[in-house]
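anyone seen this seq b4? input:
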Amino acid sequence: MSNLTNTEEKPATQQQGTVRKTSYFTPLANIFETKDGYVLEAEMPGVNKDGLEITVENNELTIVGRRSDVAVNAPVVYRESRDLDYRRAFDLDPSIDTAKISAKIDSGVLTLTLPKAESVKPRKISITD
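predicted toks r here
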């Protein structure tokens, strides 16, 4: 898996009097190689399409998932989940065609399709007479 590398997380900062969250959950991810590219799956429960931000800059893929606030109309007795958003970044190999990356989210699982550039795909060379 030399074409996708997890990069170190950078904490958020304070901006002009507004405080942003300083920590994120790192979503669990699976990466599969196909003949045409890679598939990256990231678990982001509580995130919907409107809460996703996916960017590619300088061959770094960054995924940010913001959870929808869930109103609880009762006193919390015990809580294991935290109200943190998700963030994870990956360094992309230049062999990935970043213009053709596609994404979908279903039941809290984000699936990114990262196609290989045509120039790096294996091809069969025909023999002429």
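Residues 8-20 have pLDDT under 50 and may be disordered. The first strand starts at residue 4 and ends at 6. kinda curious what u guys think
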